[in-house]
Amino acid sequence: MKLLFIGGTGNLSADCARLLHQRGHEIHVVTRGNSPLPDEFHPVVADRKDADALRGALKDLQPEVVLNFLGFDLADVQLDFSLFRDSVQQYLFISSATVYAKPHRRLPLTETAPLGNAFWDYAQKKLACEEWLLERQHEDGFPVTIVRPSHTYSHRWVPNPVSSSSFTFARRLEQGRPVFLPDAGDSLWTLTATGDFAVGLAGLAGNPKAIGETFHITRDEALTWNQIVSEIADALGAKSPQVCRIPTDFICRMAPEMAGPLKGDKANPAVFDNAKIKRFVPDFSATKPFRFGVRESIEWLRAHPEQQHLNPRIDDLCDRVVSAWQSETGSL
User: Which of 65, 209, 268, 273 is exposed most, by the fewest CB atoms within 10 A?
Assistant: First the structure.
């Protein structure tokens, strides 16, 4: 099949595109030309936000399946609908498990769990996109499939509760500088390797039975944040990590930018029932334990130091929150 990726070089999408290519599909990727593509992929050079440029670049392509990893606002999916409504066989919208209502009423989460995240505009926008697309499916027959990843990581990311796209949290652990966890650090959390996620997504792409359906695709294993940070520290060889456990409300008071990511996501337990994706994609089984996955990430990043992206704002945030907590309590 001819597949079009809107976003094909990111943390989550790169492994998905790679696996689908290995399975014999023709992969086209919308790109502004700033990130290199594998030679076997076909670039579609256009700004995803520029409707005229995108329409012109796609004029003769006619993909059978579109996978949208860059849909963050309603206008994004509305543009896609105008481009693909009469031609595409399937449109996969990569949403987010943050759309589930917080706090959760029951665990593990299934796809029918209550929706509506009152704490994070990112999740609210994703849900608005979902609802609009499903209306188009119901009213216009638009062949949409909704996919909700939770916290995913690749060899380029070391996942953490502050900023997984930056190596800053890991570097602080490595250097013995303090980091923080929400509350007591004992909330259960699910981390999924992108290579495992890709198997589930690949099984949905081109699958007519998935039209009109919603899926989350995660690992069954759930760890506490204490366990997660312990595994990261072990992978780094950090002998004496300084981990400060701070109430979520205090963190968000000192760093309001963390209210959405914590109250709307990572300070809540996240345990998933993956029975639905396993039923639709029998070969899906997220098998990589985090302790192995995070070691692969650390090894790769050490072999590619230019990819160890550090963010001074994350350093400032950690210092600000931890310092305020120490001033209030007198200890870590």
Answer: 209
206 with 76, same domain? yes
List the chain pLDDT tens, one digit each, 332 residues: 999 999 988 899 999 999 999 999 999 999 987 778 999 999 999 988 888 999 999 988 999 999 999 999 999 999 999 999 999 999 999 999 999 999 999 999 999 999 999 999 999 999 999 999 999 999 999 999 999 999 999 999 999 999 999 999 999 999 999 999 999 999 999 999 999 999 999 999 999 999 999 999 999 999 999 999 999 999 999 988 999 999 999 999 999 999 999 999 999 999 999 999 999 999 999 989 999 999 999 999 999 999 999 999 999 999 999 999 999 997 76
Q: Model-level pTM?
A: 0.96
CB 17 within 8 A of CB 8: yes
Q: Is residue 282 part of a domain?
A: no
In a domain, residue 284? The reply is: no
Same domain? 143 vs 37: yes
Kindly state the helix (H) or strand (E) to which residue 137 belongs, with its residue range: helix 121-140
DSSP-derived secondary structure for 55-107: HHHTTTT--SEEEES---SHHHHHHHHHHHTTT-SEEEEE--GGGB-SS-SSS
Q: How many CB atoms lie within 10 A of CB 60?
A: 6
Residue 169 CB coordination number (10 Å): 24
Helix (H) or strand (E) holding 236: helix 225-236
Cβ–Cβ < 8 Å for 65, 1: yes
Sheet holding 2-6, edge to edge: 42-45, 26-31, 2-6, 65-68, 90-94, 144-149, 214-217
